[in-house]
Specification:
heterodimer, A: 484 residues, Arc Repressor Mutant, subunit A, ten-stranded mixed β-sheet, three-stranded antiparallel β-sheet, 16 helices, 18 strands, 40% helix, B: 95 residues, mainly alpha, Histone, subunit A
Chain lengths: 484, 95
């Protein structure tokens, strides 16, 4: 395995968040009755003409600006010709020679913890095109059923350079891209509904070799897990083929999630010849500087910019900043929390969002947006930890109480349930004295050199205080008393 | 430039047009006649002239993102050869 290098490039189809289709006024809403959202243009009835949806172009410009790409002032729609029953016109309107977005790059965090590293993946291009309909092959007494609701849905096809060197990098890229398109609001990212799907071009070559090996393209991967499994299987398959003396044939393959294997769909010999040519029904798309300027003004702060601010201004680690900018929901939650708890508490805020809140949401099977504990409530809780009103342990109880709606604020719960930490040294001293008197055996053990006995005594004091004594104060006082 | 008979047959196949050998041969003649015409045009010196993507030198007209089409499935499907459960039925094609 070691002497092989894996080379991966990814093509992604992101369904654009428009209410109507790219070239017609039919609805793009998901889940409608078959063919109720397929109008004359989508059905390619004679005499119809496509008219381009401005919002789809807005989305493409947004994307281009967010990856630092060039937005083409002039791009051209082309016909990609092939025959399939769910493609009524006999061609797909796409872009070939002059795409709307050229170049750009995406910076990703790969791995976690000590092994985390940053990687820049270059993008080749992104172009606008229309989706095809859907073929249903079952249950129609030997025939196929065609649903054209999806035909004409706007897509942005985003093509990366072959810059990824492992399935982990491929998944990190797909996740970063998925996060970005949702962040800038051009795609809902719903992978189950097919709004975001990836094709992976995979090849292997001996380490150190400059030219690429022959690639095979794995089509239509609609989950990050499948993307990883498919690439891992494909890489191993290609290495085995080469090591057994066979040559890799350029091919398109499908991944079967049930078997975890890829299988050949078509090889290069019968590959499509799409006979692209400029679509005479559509004029060139002209994008002026003022249009680009307007979209630039509308763009939110991007994940990369936020990451930089989180590390530079808030002093978070690159890993924390990366996790907190995985989606706009997480970032917004975190920032709303910091607004309440103060920048000085950014680190505990980060920890609570990434660890405690994330775990609780996960347990309940909920998304960040559905959290019963608001950022303001959690920020208020952080303030009470920071000013020593409660310990971290008690904070977890307060958090659970907030989750269950036992109070509107952390303060209210701390008050109502009497959870305020005992910091009055006189009160703690009384507890310590009580415990020392009642646990002579532990005291003797400690004095005989058994360190563990000390922890037992701390535990006893905390128990007597119902967990509310300030642990540091308890430690200090016990040490003092035992030394004396 | 001219097309071979082989290329004519491939183009016909890609366009799903069935051609007999005789038809392919006569089509080859027609197409090569068109190529001669194109060759004449290509003889014109166009250096320094930016190619046009469309015969009209205009930009694409755009529409606002709004749903303007109502459901007319019943009307469209009334002229379809075969439908079931709202779907258009076609001979089975699996790629």
């Amino acid at each position: 395995m070691n002497q092989w290098e894996v080379v991966i490039g990814i093509e992604t189809h992101a369904q654009l968040a428009t209410v109507s289709k790219i070239f017609s006024g039919a609805s793009t809403a998901f889940g409608a009755e078959p063919n109720t959202q397929a109008c004359a243009v989508d059905l390619a009835l004679p005499g119809v003409l496509p008219v381009l949806n401005r919002k789809a172009v807005d989305c493409a410009i947004r994307f281009g600006l967010s990856i630092g790409a060039e937005v083409a002032t002039k791009s051209v729609f082309a016909r990609k010709n092939y025959f399939y029953p769910d493609l009524p016109k006999g061609y797909q309107i796409s872009q070939m020679d002059l795409p709307v977005v050229v170049g750009g790059s995406l910076t990703l965090q790969v791995g976690s913890g000590d092994k985390a590293y940053e990687k820049v993946v270059r993008l080749t291009r992104a172009h606008l095109e229309e989706d095809a309909g859907k073929s249903l092959h079952e249950d129609f007494h030997g025939k196929s059923g065609i649903d054209l609701n999806r035909a004409g849905t706007p897509l942005l096809e985003i093509v990366s350079e072959p810059d990824m060197r492992s399935s982990d990098e491929a998944v990190a890229y797909a996740k970063a891209l998925h996060g970005l398109v949702r962040w800038i609001g051009i795609c809902d990212g719903n992978m189950q509904e097919g709004s975001f799907r990836c094709d992976a071009n995979v090849s292997v070559r001996p380490k150190g070799q400059l030219e690429f090996g022959t690639r095979r393209e794995i089509k239509n991967l609609n989950s990050f897990r499948f993307l990883k499994e498919a690439i891992d299987y494909e890489v191993q398959w290609q290495i085995n083929e080469i090591e057994e003396g066979r040559k890799i044939q350029q091919a398109t393959v499908l991944f079967d999630p049930d078997t975890g294997e890829t299988r050949t769909m078509r090889t290069k010999e019968d590959a499509h010849d799409y006979r692209y040519f400029p679509d005479p029904d559509l004029l060139p798309l002209l994008i002026g500087a003022d249009w680009i300027e307007r979209i630039k003004d509308e763009l939110p702060e991007l994940p990369a910019q936020k990451r930089e601010r989180f590390t530079n201004v808030l002093g978070l680690s690159a890993y924390d900043a990366g996790t907190l900018t995985a989606s706009q929901e997480i970032a917004a939650y975190f920032e709303a929390m910091v607004a309440v708890a103060g920048q000085g508490n950014a680190k505990p805020c980060a920890n609570w969002v990434m660890v405690d809140l994330a775990a609780r949401l996960n347990k309940a099977g909920r998304e960040m947006a559905e959290s019963p504990v608001s950022a303001q409530q959690l920020g208020g809780l952080i303030l009470r930890i920071a000013d020593n009103t409660i310990s971290n342990n008690i904070a977890k109880k307060v958090f659970e109480a907030l989750w269950n709606g036992e109070g509107a604020t952390a303060d209210e719960i701390i008050d109502k349930q009497g959870l305020k930490q005992i910091t009055d040294s006189g009160a703690i001293e009384a507890l310590v004295d009580e415990v020392l008197a009642a646990n002579a055996a532990n005291v003797a053990e400690f004095k005989a050199g058994k360190e563990k006995a000390f922890n037992a005594l701390v535990g006893q004091v905390m128990k007597a205080a119902k967990g509310k004594a300030n642990p540091q104060q308890v430690n200090d006082l016990l040490k003092k008393k035992l030394a004396g | 430039m001219s097309l071979t008979l082989e290329q004519v047959k491939r183009i016909a196949h890609l366009a799903r047009i069935e051609t007999s050998d005789a038809e392919a041969l006569s089509t080859q003649g027609h197409l090569n006649g068109i190529f001669q015409l194109i060759e004449q045009m290509q003889a014109v010196d166009t250096s320094g002239i930016e190619p046009m993507a469309h015969a009209q030198d205009l930009g694409q007209r755009l529409r606002d993102d709004a749903v303007s089409e109502a459901d007319r499935r019943a009307a469209y499907q009334s002229v379809a050869p075969e439908t079931e459960a709202g779907l258009y039925l076609v001979p089975k094609v699996i790629e």
